[in-house]
């Protein structure tokens, strides 16, 4: 087991344990009774575990949808996927990644303790993704190990502090308070979504026609909406595959059956995500106050993006679909200019596009949701094209990072440190 694995497979690699420990310490500092200590710690861990279970179920369905789209439309290109490229980076740069994470966490806590930027980034896997990107970019510039460690750690620390800072004005408008911040490296995408949505004024909803009222009553439950939309998406994409191709991919099942099963899996995953988020927030936010009061006064926990879904599940679903549509438009543009084709990844568009959709809807209403989600999807699909040349120097020919911050920070770091070569 190398140094990266020791860190990533420890507390940082198990966010449920990390968050449970934080809840325990926070409640302990508040001198809560023993029963409350155990109750809060376990429910925090359970909440995050439910979120992971739901994300895995939804992600599995989305991976199958990606495969259906690729096979149906015969498109060959690069699908941004954080986990894949991070795994590749760890094979060659495990030690550098571990040292960058270590320095980054120390500097990040110092920033929270001694400056007015009081956000504590708690999304461990995104910390690992960013450290992997920084290691890859800095090593490709032939920097010695100690410079990679120091420079990468400082950039990681500031990224973890500044990402929640720039998104917080929009998160506050969604949640109505500063109980938590966004700890997810798609902050550029969220700011873009909120900025575009602010062009539209959220006024009173127009009166509904009788036909629309009947339709609305059918779709009153957002889980029904998610299931129906996903079913239609699967079925439509599957129609472009031969019957034999579908049976080969799904163990002989007909596309109709596959679409129904995958749609219910996806909706079930979303339901579990929302249940986990509600449980997690109800425990971690009050518990974190104990740490904030004693160790980092005024600190705000920065959490993963699905925490926004509960504020408008319907907007999250529509945001995902429109963001993905914007991504398809960007792919068509890339095909027309014969540039490297980025195939919009369904998973990043679901999580990042969903959270961006909630922000857009809460700020700009329906019009804001539609316009900003399309632009968001277009932007996060195009952005990886500027990062690919940097990663191709390392041999990562068909892999890249998905969310917007990785592209922006990767290019900025490369340009900045090129001056010192």
Task: Describe this protein's structure.
The structure is a single chain. The protein is mostly helical. Helices cover 74% and strands 2% of the residues. It is built from 15 helices and three strands. The protein has helices spanning 3-8, 15-29, 34-73, 82-114, 124-139, 145-175, 187-197, 210-218, 222-238, 243-249, 255-294, 313-336, 346-382, 384-392, 404-418; strands at 119-121, 181-182, 300-303. Strands 1-3-2 form a three-stranded parallel beta sheet, with helices on both faces. The chain is globular. 51% of the residues are buried. The mean pLDDT is 82.
Radius of gyration, in angstroms, nearest whole number = 22 Å
Query: Order of strands in the sheet with the most strands?
Result: 1-3-2
Q: Which structural class fits the helix and strand makeup?
A: mainly alpha
Span of the ends, CA to CA: 33 Å
Gross geometry: globular
Strand tally: 3
Average pLDDT reading: 82
What proportion of the residues form beta strands (DSSP E)? under 5%
Helix amount, in percent? Answer: over 70%
Specify the oligomeric state: single chain
Largest sheet: 3 strands, parallel
GO cellular component, one term: plasma membrane
Keywords: Cell membrane, Membrane, Phosphotransferase system, Sugar transport, Transmembrane, Transmembrane helix, Transport
Protein name: Ascorbate-specific PTS system EIIC component
Transmembrane segments: 12-29, 120-141, 148-171, 183-201, 222-242, 254-274, 314-335, 341-361, 368-391
